[in-house]
Structure formats: C-alpha cells, structure tokens
Design brief:
With 444 residues, the protein is an all-alpha fold. Helices cover 72% and strands 0% of the residues. The protein has one domain (10-440).
C-alpha cells in the first residue's frame, strides 16, 4: 500500500456516507417534531457548526504554534491538522446559514436579535453596538474567512516545500519554513483576538444578560482538547489502514500528555470562571450557573466527571498514554464530553429565549413572558426571572436525545470526509521539512 498518498477503502467511504445520512435524517426528524419554533433544530445546527469550526481553528492554531516555536516532534503527522483546518471552508458555509437566520429572522437563537427586545431591554440595548445582526454577519463570517486564508496559506507553503524545498533554493531547507513562520507568527495574535470575539458572538450571546471574562478561554480550551482527541482517533484509524508507519508510541505519548494537560487546564477554567464571579461578589452573573445547576444538574456535574475525572484518572499512568486501547477510550470520552459541554453552554439560554419570545404555546411560556419586563429591568431581575421559572425536562434541551447524537455523527462524518479529502491531495508527511528527522526520531 502506498503510504505517501491516502486512498480510503470503499467500505470506509460507505460508513462515512451512512453516518452522513443518519445526521440528515436526524435533522429531518427534529424539524418535524419540534414544537418550539424549530429552536431545537437551529440549536443543533449552531451547536455542531460552532463545535467543528472551532476544532478546525484549533488545528491551524496548533500548527502555527509549532512552527513559531520550532517544535518538530509533530511534523510527521502535521498534515492531518492541515486537513482538519480546511473544514473552516465548510464552517464558513454553515455559519453563513446561521448568520442568514439572524439577519432575516428565521430563528430565535439569540434574544438580542428580536427588535422589540433590543429596543426595550436596557442591558441588551447597551450591548447593541456589538450584538446586532450586521456585526454578527460581517464580523462572524469575516473571522472564519480570515482563519481559512491562513490555513490555506500554511498548507500551500508546506506543499510547495515538498516540491521545491531542497532543489530550487540550492538545498536550503529553511526558505519555505521562514515564510511559514512569518504567517504563523502573524496569525497567532489575530486568532487570539478574533476567536474570543467569535465565541462571544456565537455562544456567549445566547445568554445576553450574562458576561464572563473567562468564557472565551474556557470554550477555546474545550475545543482544543477535542481537537487533540480527534487527532489521536484519526491517527490510530489511519495506522490501522496501513498509513503513518512512522508515527510511534512516542508521538501518541505526547498527544496523550496534551490531552491530559488540557483536560486539567479546562477544569481550572471551569472552576475559575465561577470562582471569579463569587470572589468579586458579582451577583448578577450567577444567573448562568444558577440555571444550569438547578435545571441541568446532570449536564453540569456530569460534564466535570466526563471531561476531568475520567481522563485524569485514566491518563495519570504514564504508560496509558502509549496504549491504543486506552487512548481510543479516553479520546472518545473527551470528544463526546466536550461536545456535551458545548451543548450545555448553548441549550439553556436558547430555550429560555424561545419561551420568552412566545415560541412555546404552553402555560410555561406565559409564565416566562410574565417576568419578561422584570428580566429586562436589570441584571438582578434577570437572575430572579431565571430562577423563578423551571422549564421542566425536555429531551433535546435538558439532555441530548438520540437525534442530537445522530446530528453529531452526521457532522463528524462531514468533518472526517473533509479532512481526508484534503489529506489525500498531498503526501501524508512533509518530506522536506527541516524538522522531519527530529520527528522521525522523536523519543521521550
């Protein structure tokens, strides 16, 4: 089997197609049984679009960190991250659909997008310079386009290095690398600022009365460790198909260390976000946690068990970071766990929004609407309104239902297909990278 260019077996393509069909059928099922103005449908699209788009961003982000820091250990499989980063092109389309929904009023994902609320709610009105459909559309899509530009530039330079890196420039292996380093160093601060703004727009603004200075860090750490988990799973799969013979247990050990370390870092942010609100005595910002602890306790505490306790205990042993079976188990736990983490970031706020805007034609909706004026009066009123009303148990909002997992599988198949498509367009390993030998002989 030619290990330089990937060629998937037909049965693997069929599996990806089946997963894609499952995702499509799940969306159709949700749309046909959604009684909240299609809020469940739109939240599933938003949830998965943001999750996989940010994973793609973290892939190019890690490439740029590695290039800037002269880190050579991951060169042998870095093209996998190249392929993952090109999902940003798909993410641009998906988030474009969400943005059109905001612009033309197709959905009620965001409370601030309702014209009447934006005009009468003093808190939302005060944030209107940032939370408005024009900025959401132009800035949100502009950020993704900018990220994709750098992802494509870094890949193009890497592929050009394969063709000309040791010939055209007199056996100078650094010519292309220096260009890559320039774009990588330029991208890092851009990604840092724009990713935070995008996360505020896409995720945090579903709870428009709430604000946290740690939220962007928290969400970024969640998507970064998800990217590492998905990288491990993809590499193990590709090795099982006869590719990446040069990727050894040493490389998996380092990937396992990143998954372990960032699971701990994510937990620190999970606690720190609440601790700063408590320590600063910012009572109006406790509404976010109050809602999730009281109405979504399974998600809130289960989130900590799946994303910290289990990875921490399993990966604490050094040799477990080298065992494929252990890495597969933890990789799946971390990936699904952080998908659930994003679920509990998005669903409570969007459910309250749908009910407050009258999309739910039940007495519970009228109960929320009855507190809408007090909710908008001040931030303390917002906390009272949320705590005074319980939305009750709703599959697809309180916990993910089977259709939610079906949609995730569909998006996952799209992500993997996109990654493998771009991975097949060039050699699996950058053959003229100046750090290739270091990666091939990597040992820890």
């Amino acid at each position: 089997m030619n290990s330089e260019h990937i060629q998937l077996p037909n049965k693997d393509k069929i599996v990806l197609a089946i997963l894609g069909i499952i995702g499509l059928l799940s969306l159709i099922y949700i749309a046909s049984n959604d009684d909240l103005g299609h809020t469940r449908l739109w939240t599933n699209i938003l949830h998965n679009s943001v999750f996989f788009t940010l994973i793609a961003l973290m892939a190019i982000f890690f490439i740029c960190i590695s290039v800037t820091a002269y880190a050579g250990w991951n060169v042998v499989f870095r093209r996998v991250w190249d392929g993952m980063s090109h999902f940003l092109l798909v993410g641009l389309v998906l988030m474009g659909i969400i943005a059109m929904g905001v612009y033309f009023g197709w959905h009620n994902l965001y409370h601030w997008a309702d014209a009447k609320t934006a005009a009468t709610d003093p808190i939302i009105k005060g944030k209107s310079g940032f939370l408005n459909k024009h900025f959401y559309t132009i800035a949100g899509l502009g950020f993704i386009a900018l990220w994709f530009f750098f992802a494509k530039k870094m890949r193009d330079l890497s592929v050009a290095e394969d063709d000309h890196g040791s010939n055209q420039f007199g056996n100078n292996p650094w010519k292309h690398y220096k260009s890559m380093k320039f774009y990588a160093a330029l991208f890092l601060p851009i990604a840092g600022f724009t990713s935070a703004a995008a996360i505020w727009l896409w995720i945090m603004s579903v709870d428009p009365h709430w604000y946290s200075t740690m939220f962007a860090w928290y969400s970024s750490a969640s998507c970064f460790v998800s990217m590492i988990a998905l990288t491990i799973l993809l590499l193990i799969y590709l090795k099982s198909r006869g590719y990446y013979h040069a990727v050894t247990s040493e490389h998996f050990h380092d990937l396992g260390k990143f998954m372990f370390a960032f699971s701990v870092f994510w937990t620190y942010l999970w606690f720190d976000q609440y601790m700063l609100i408590w320590y600063g005595n910012i009572g109006e910002e406790t509404v976010y946690f109050q809602t999730r602890i009281k109405e979504y306790p399974v998600l809130f505490y289960g989130n900590l068990v799946i994303n910290f306790v289990l990875p921490f205990l399993i990966l604490m042993r050094n040799d477990n970071k080298r065992k494929y079976g252990t890495l597969i188990l933890v990789g799946i736990l971390v990936f699904v766990g952080h998908w659930i983490d994003l679920f509990q970031m998005i669903k409570p706020g969007t459910l309250h929004t749908a009910m407050e805007l009258g999309d739910h034609a039940s007495s519970a909706a009228h109960g929320v609407a009855g507190h809408a004026a007090e909710h908008a009066a001040d931030a303390h009123g917002a906390a009272d309104a949320h705590s005074a009303h319980s939305t009750g148990f709703k599959v697809g909002f309180t916990i993910p239902g089977i259709p939610e997992f079906g949609v995730m599988l569909g998006f996952l198949s799209l992500f993997i297909a996109t990654t493998l498509h771009f991975l097949s367009k060039a050699a699996l390993t950058p053959k003229h990278d100046p750090f290739l030998k270091e990666s091939l002989h990597h040992h820890v």
